[in-house]
Fold this sequence. Notes:
about 170 residues, mainly alpha, two-stranded antiparallel sheet, about 85% helix, rod-shaped
Amino acid sequence: xxxxxxxxxxxxxxxxxxxxxxxxxxxxxxxxxxxxxxxxxxxxxxxxxxxxxxxxxxxxxxxxxxxxxxxxxxxxxxxxxxxxxxxxxxxxxxxxxxxxxxxxxxxxxxxxxxxxxxxxxxxxxxxxxxxxxxxxxxxxxxxxxxxxxxxxxxxxxxxxxxxxxxxxxx
Length: 170
């Protein structure tokens, strides 16, 4: 009785087998080997296709990873620049706060000085008004003195020339 192989169940010929049985068994074994080979080829092709797809996926993922690394690098650089700008801005804000406080104090002092200057201008305007009034009074007094001087001059002239009586004394 012939024995079979454990995996493909091929018939192992025995020395006592007749040639026609051995040939028939050989044909069966060839068909089984061919069928098993076809299954292995189909599985290999399927695995190769799957492997090729996986390689494409890996390549795409590597490209995506490279792009992502580049974007991360760019973002890190941008973040670094932004952090530097934030630090600079914080420093400038602190400096500006100090400048605002100083300028506020300066404005208060200027406003105080301006108040004093305005008070001085008001006082000067009052004095100018008083001087204007005094000038007008002085002009009036000068005009009165001029009139008196003219009258005195006329009298003196009349006294020096007795022939013509002075005005208003005739």
